[in-house]
Amino acid sequence: MEVKINREIREYTEAMYFGLSLRQFICAVLACGVAVGLYFLLRPHMGMETVSWVCMLGAAPFAAIGFIKYHGMTAEKFLWVWIKSEILMPKYLVFHPENLYYELTKDEMILSRLVDTFISRISLTMLPVPNPHNTVCVLSWEEARHWQSRSSGYSSS
Description:
Elements: H1 22-42, H2 48-67, H3 75-88, H4 100-125, H5 141-152
């Protein structure tokens, strides 16, 4: 003997009529009733193809209400949540980020930036003196002329 059990117990629905739940059955009957009513109401005034499209569009909301769930909510529950969140209690949520790591290390970061800036400015003003005998240095044209004039003893200006 084999018994089928749903994987998710919360999604279990009892089938009452033609394999449909009571909610689905009532909505299907309403959808059919709206489609038939629209057909007999509009048949003398429109063509057959237009009437059939209008019947489908008229029945679709009732079928959707009975069969579709959005985030696990039925149509009435979703409508109530939407009215409550958009009309009765609307809130404009503004996101203000909070970086706890930055708040904790803000002082160290500022100090580190100040030290880095200070050291970089000192190192830019204190260029090393190149040793022409055992060091290879890449200098700009003006710096090369300057060091050449200092080492040879004559000035080119």
